[in-house]
Specification:
The chain contains 13 helices and two strands; from the N terminus they run ααααααββααααααα. It is mainly alpha-helical and 293 residues long.
Length: 293
């Protein structure tokens, strides 16, 4: 997320310079019409990071078609500048980034159903999905109006408004949501845990007891379930918390693991159970439990 905002800040500095210094604006706009290297690198970076962040938030792996979309997006940004100078050329250049923004919002809303609706993280993802779709449409409308109504792309009269107000507001809102979520998590950790020391035996016992309280007291059934699917001891600890509808951050904190380690073990559990979502893990466990009883 930090890299995403860093790229946005760099872009903002360049746009501010184009608005402040007339000489810089002329050179920047002429380069954009001939070979928009900076803008192409910016959109490739911002879309790639956003795509990766979206899949990490949803705890899913990038699909093959998403890689294909990204490659086609790159080719589009490279080939469109070879068109003759016109408003259509500029509009087509920006179009795929706006479409992909709306797509990412739809992806968030599509997969948010796998999250527990009672969790705060669910509300953040759902809000983020609707905001992304809404601002994607606003950015598209503003660009269309500015490109076809206000800007001029003739070589003798080159006048381009580089700033998109809707895009700026969108990034500010994203920043505010991210800061609020991080602060909320930090406060939750502060009031829940008093010492960051490594776990000792008594702490491990408390973790195990807490996890067991979230599940039916049927350890024999769970042991047979773990044995049936070849789940390791560490995966079993994480599986208990998955069944208890714990989120990655909660699992990582409770078991003193990194989020990356939790994601890796969760992915291995998904593979062994042949599922793609956490809700499917719970369904398989419930079906096994009912059949076993």
């Amino acid at each position: 997320m930090m890299i995403y905002f860093l790229v946005v800040i760099i872009k903002g500095i360049v746009i501010a310079m184009s608005e402040t210094f007339h000489v810089f604006a002329n050179g920047y706009n002429q380069l954009f019409m001939i070979n928009p290297i900076f803008d192409t690198l910016y959109y490739l970076a911002i879309v790639g990071i956003a795509l990766k962040l979206t899949d990490e938030l949803l705890n899913i792996k990038l699909k093959f078609y998403q890689y294909v979309l990204y490659i086609l997006f790159a080719f589009w940004l490279i080939l469109v500048p070879f068109m003759s100078d016109s408003a259509l050329k500029v509009w087509l250049y920006y179009l795929p980034s706006q479409v992909l923004t709306i797509y990412l919002g739809g992806l968030l809303l599509k997969h948010v159903r796998q999250l527990d609706e009672t969790r705060q993280f669910y509300r953040y993802i759902r809000l983020l999905g609707w905001l992304t779709i809404s601002f994607g449409l606003l950015i598209f409308l503003e660009d269309s109006f500015v490109i076809y109504v206000r800007d001029s792309y003739h070589r003798n009269v080159l006048q381009i408004q580089n700033r998109n107000i809707s895009e700026d507001v969108f990034h500010i809102v994203l920043c505010m949501i991210s800061i609020r979520y991080v602060c909320t998590q930090l406060l939750a950790d502060k009031f829940t845990y008093h010492a960051p020391s490594p776990p000792n035996n008594s702490q491990c016992e408390r973790v195990e007891t807490t996890a067991n309280q979230q599940m039916p007291n049927q350890e024999d059934d769970f042991s047979r379930f773990v044995s049936k699917y070849g789940i390791t001891q560490r995966e079993a600890e994480i599986l208990k918390l998955l069944i208890a509808h714990k989120h990655n951050q909660e699992i990582a904190t409770q078991l003193y693991l990194s989020i990356g380690t939790v994601k890796t073990h969760t992915h291995n559990i998904f593979i062994k159970l042949q599922v793609d979502r956490r809700t499917e893990v719970c369904k398989i466990w419930e079906a096994f439990e009912q059949h076993d009883t």
